[in-house]
Fold this sequence. Notes:
Elements: H1 2-14, E1 27-33, E2 38-47, E3 50-59, H2 62-75, H3 80-94, H4 116-138
Antiparallel strand pairs: 1-2, 2-3
Helix pairs in contact: 1-2, 2-4, 3-4
Amino acid sequence: MEELYQEIILDHYRCPRHKNCCPDCGVRVHQDNPLCGDDITLGVELEHGTIARIGFEGQGCAISQASASMMAESVKGQSVERALELGETMRRMMHGEAPDEDLGDLMALQGVAKFPVRVKCALLPWTAMRQALTAGMADGGDA
């Protein structure tokens, strides 16, 4: 199973989904991890409380970039509430808790919890998403 999970992470790293596809989104946020060089700018477009468009730009390790791709893929079309719930589930999973639901490809990131120095890499795009959604909802939910 670990080999399958590694392949999923490498696939998202090599062929990221939603990379560079939202430069004109209404909400853009930047997050970085200066300790390891991970860097992400996330763009989100909300329509009626739903993530209509999402995309990211950035650089960093395979884990941070794959996590950004997987995050964007999993939250596009979801309600803000569901995306924030998923972000919280990911945070708990990265700190060793087993998820209460099947997270699909996101389960590939579960092994990152064994490497505390990499947890921030995996959570960086999720932190950016939470910041973007909070800002978007503060602007009326249709940012």
